[in-house]
Amino acid sequence: xxxTQTAEEREREAKKLRLLxxxxxxxxxxxTPKDDEFYQQWHLKxxxxxxxxxxxxxxxxxxxxxxxxxxxxxxxxLFRDLVRIQGKDVLTPVSRILIGNPxxxxxxxxxxxxxxxxxxxxxxxxYTEDEIGAACQTFLxxxxxxxxxxxxxxxxxxxxxxxxxxxxxxxxxxxxxxxxMGSSFDGQDEEDVKSRxxxxxxxxxxxxxxxxxxxxxxxxxxxxxxxxxxxxxxNLVERSAVAVYNYSCExxxxxSEDDPDLEGRDPDTWHVGFKISWDIETPGLAIxxxxxxxxxxxxxxxxxxxxxxxxxxxxxxxSTHRVAECSxxxxxxxxxxxxxxxxxxxxxxxxxxxSLKSLEPAILKQGEEIHNEVEFEWLRxxxxxxxxxxxCTDWWCQPMTxxxxxxxxxxxxxNAVLREVRKEGLPVEQxxxxxxxxLASLTTxxxxxxxxxxxxxxxxxxxxxxVVRCEANLWEKILSNGIGIGSSYVAxxxx
Length: 495
Known about the structure:
By secondary structure, the protein is α+β, with helices and mostly antiparallel strands.
């Protein structure tokens, strides 16, 4: 079943096509540090982008972080994601792992990632290897460091704006601007600044370009091979900052200065590209990234600009620290939603059937919506990624088992609703009200089960690197037993 594009996706695709049509066979201009107007353009058009060169970061932190990257890679903790783009499954060229606050998740490209917890105060986490635990501790340390640096940058920006409307940028290094100007920070109090730098997750990335058979060419500026295409980071708290630590595995030859005769960016060096969204007048920037460099996207930069990652010739790790929007993305949240849905459950009788406290349409509608949320936003997302999380920790095993149990109870609630609807004594008007209230959720469930089943079959057939849990799990029971939207014949038809 082909998924219908959302209005936002259709609009984005239309903008992309219009932009490519306007370009025809020409490239938009972009600048690198070799260009005379590079820094002026950065100050004027990209003022909320900060680069901190490696020399300004403590050497001991560099050593710990880079060892932590290599440790996680050695233990096979980073995985390529099978993401959903315009109704198609696409395997990312970049391998990733999400580390962060216990119970948090982060969703991008219709894929929910679950944190490997870092050891925050008061938490008890059992890691599969002591080295993995130490690596998670290191990324928590890096998170604290980057949070402090981000807060300092925001406070300095606020101070500069209050003292002078024409404040000059503050520099961290002779060549690179640290802070630009902007009016959006006026009136922010200290707590607001801290909340925008309260990084709760980091998405670690790894790619070895030499092992990739194909990488997309950058389509607008001719910047070369892309590891990550143009995008805005998704599902972040509005106007929150993003901090990125770069570890490109450079040899002595990569440490040398760029060739002054080379036109455009050096293809052997990793770069981050920036452009103003859908703007064909302002030149883009291609900023070289060397081992240990950090860059920061402040305030609304992530919303008003797009960025991409341009591949170099050597392997590269990065740690991208974010304030994930977790209002609907934590374990506590979904467990509370389950409790809400099951409040309408009265008890279970001897034959396993359940009875309901209320047939109020609004209550039934809410229960079925939560039922879908648990299944498609959590359980299927988790098991579709196989056993990857067990590589690092068993932290999610018990919560997912608990969610499966609650899901089964919701299946019982759906069956109980349909039994009530079938009863001859139920007034026609009440029957119609109940069916109207739950029909959309049941139809969505049927369609999504078809889609997820097809995705699982494709992934298994194509021998993707992520192993699907195929035996004695919840989804095999769905297929074999016909557990459906409340009636087995409907479920079997769905598959």
